[in-house]
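Troubleshooting log. The previous run stalled partway through. Resubmitting the same two chains, unchanged.
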Amino acid sequence: MSACALRVLLQRAAVMRKAAHQTFSQTRAFPQCVTGSYTYSRGINTLTNSLRAEEKVTVHFLNRDGKRISVKALTGESLLDIVVNHDLDIDGFGACEGTLACSTCHLIFEEAVYKKLGPISDEEMDMLDLAYGLTDTSRLGCQVCLRKDLDGMILRVPDVISDARVDSEKESSTAPPKV
Amino acid sequence: MSLTVFTQTAQHERFSFHGNVNVGKDVTIDELRQAYHAVVLSYGAEGNRSMGIPGEDLPGVFSAKDFVGWYNGLPCNKELHPDLSCETAVILGQGNVALDVARILLAPVEMLKETDITQNSLEALANSKVRRVLIVGRRGPLQIACTIKELREMVNLPKVRADMLPADFKGIAEVLKDLPRPRKRLTELMMKAVKEGGDDKAEKCWGLRFFRSPVEVLAGADGKRATGIRLALNKLEGSGESARAEVTGQTEDVDCGLIISSIGYKSIPIDPAVPFDPRRAIVPNEMGRVQDTAGLYCSGWVKRGPTGVIATTMNDSFDTARVLIQDMEDGKLDLSVNKPGAKAITALLQTRGVRTVLFSQWEKINAEEEKRGRSLGKPREKLLDVDEMLKIAWS
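Second attempt completed without errors. Output:
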């Protein structure tokens, strides 16, 4: 154990798996609004800021605590970009940073808006399958880009499993397969 | 988790990282509890479940934990030297880790070259003779433990075809429509692989094998290394997630030179003072509060067992944090007493000759790995030697 002590941050199997796993999917994970190489760091979206015209659109996030967060954002940004760039207070949103390796950017859309969104890939559906509280109008925020005709839409941030008393053995039949 | 998510937390003014400390040996949990109002155990599951069958210790048999550690650059696995000169590899277990191992064994080297897989394992895999990988599970297709993303990556692997047994899928098509969406899509993808198989001309193949449990690793005439595995054939009692595998008495032998056991990780006890449930291999707790031990909490795999994806485990950590904050607010944690915190612990470690690694020092290791990776066209080239890491950290 002591020889591996230094790897304490990265030692969990879920992360170890991801190390050799992540870069396969990285190049396929980006939605159509992002072109070319994409440098992602929290708070900075260098690509969209430099290339996009200033088209501002209003988006409302209905947070888990019931509070509404309204932001004016640029068309072309993904909904994950918006949460990050505006430093919105949504716990654990976008853990895998838009690489389609988690479901933490799960958002629920109004039905009329959902129908207007672009197509959903198998890869996005695969990760949505693991999202808690999946609905018929659910999408992953990292795969949906803002457009002018989405102005004023309300996005609900779904609850996550927060009751630790729920025994994982007794999860409902809609729970994803255990890994 | 990505490095930048960690970095943000690590740079918070009230966060400090002390690496190179072996808790339980360099410092005890009791000493930590004396120094802090609350201690949270979040050390995951670094051990593995063993198959418990004869021949398990023969050369050629590895735990998935060690095999994954080898290609991921864990220092303690760098001398693994798995022999990849056989044609067939058998993986026991059908979770995401099993599928990851299969993918690494069969992926074209051009794909692997651009990842942060270690250079040693890249070379070994480039020279690998492994052409066929079987992924074996005790129960049936409807009980498979992996998730669809990992299965899809196998199905989509270039230059590799699927080799399934249609008989294993008897009766599955009929029950598809009643399955919940995640299970339904996963099963449909498997059925597609059964039907379509993939590129006939592909040299490499992979297959799922169901209703089979390992009973013995077989050695060749010289008895010196694994040359095959004996599998017991099961039948399923019950259905759905709770279906059980029952023995039939029949067995089947599979020739193979590489056997990887991927039947689960396991937490190990960190300190004799911490309660530990050896049967479930977790720290007994009530919503993250360690049993009978005020001020001690746990989160993640050491709390719930070694299952769950990023979202599950992350949300579990949030739960433990909420419980801890609740205890502070309810007065269950005695905050009236002053605790010395890190000052006391680092002083203690110093008297014991243990030198810690701070986050800024870890960042030097990170920078060096990225630098070495750049000349190889990889995101990083991992350092495999702890002494070398420490030298760079403390330089």
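Takeaways: Confidence is low (pLDDT under 50) at residues 1-16, 18-28, 35-46, 163-179 of chain A. The longest helix of chain A spans residues 13-26.
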